[in-house]
Amino acid sequence: MEEAMGDGVAARRERLMEGLRIYGGHYAELSRRFAAWLGLHSTDATAVLEIAAAEERGTPLSPARLSERIPLSTGATTALLNRLEAAGHITRTREHSDRRIVTLRGGPHIQERADEFFGPLAGRLDTAMSPYPPQLLEQFEQFMTDLNATMDAHLAERSPVAPCPPGVPGPPGVPGDRRR
Predict the structure, then answer these.
(1) For 83-118, b where at least 16 C-beta lie within 10 A, e where not — what string?
(2) What are the residues facing 117 on neighbouring strands?
(3) Residue 56 and residue 35: Cα distance in Å, rounded?
(4) Are 110 and 69 in contact, with CB atoms under 8 Å apart?
């Protein structure tokens, strides 16, 4: 009896993880479509979203924090920010008492464009969550916090890209890829 219950819990956990993977895929596709809609490369659009979201939370990003959020080298982050600033999508300001610290802000039109693109989805998601009691949403919020902390810890323990063993083809563009 206990084993059958354990199997049921394991199956439920697997279904839940599959649902999260599917949601992640949908989020990636939505991000890709947002980038295309703005006429930006997906990395540039991701940066714009990260900058706007941080600003909306009241914790604007510095270039260093942005490069952690969208894993890029310092040089690649600088090039990306130069492109976004030239296009008017972001601004770099020095509003901290330490004038060396740069703060990233969304351009005047970015929040409006993001709201236009994501607003209808936000309404649908709010409607989808509305039947659930606040206590359940609080539990789910804690669940997501715990999952994200677990993923963060796991990623911190692993190198960003492990090379493939000699003779084993890796994904395109990854060190160890022998298909080029």
Answers:
(1) bbeeeebbbeeeeeeeeeebbbbbbeebeebbeeee
(2) none
(3) 19
(4) no
Q: What is the pLDDT along the chain (180 residues), one digit of tens a residue?
A: 555 556 789 999 999 999 999 999 999 999 999 999 999 999 999 999 999 989 989 999 999 999 988 888 889 999 999 999 999 999 998 887 777 789 999 988 888 888 899 999 999 999 999 999 999 999 999 999 999 999 989 988 886 665 566 666 655 544 444 433
Length of the chain (residues): 180
Q: What is the DSSP letter of 87?
A: T
- First and final C-alpha spacing in the chain: 54
Contacts of 167 (CB under 8 A, 6+ apart): 178
Residue 93 is given by DSSP the state E
Nearest to 113 by CA among 87, 94, 79: 87
- pTM confidence score: 0.72
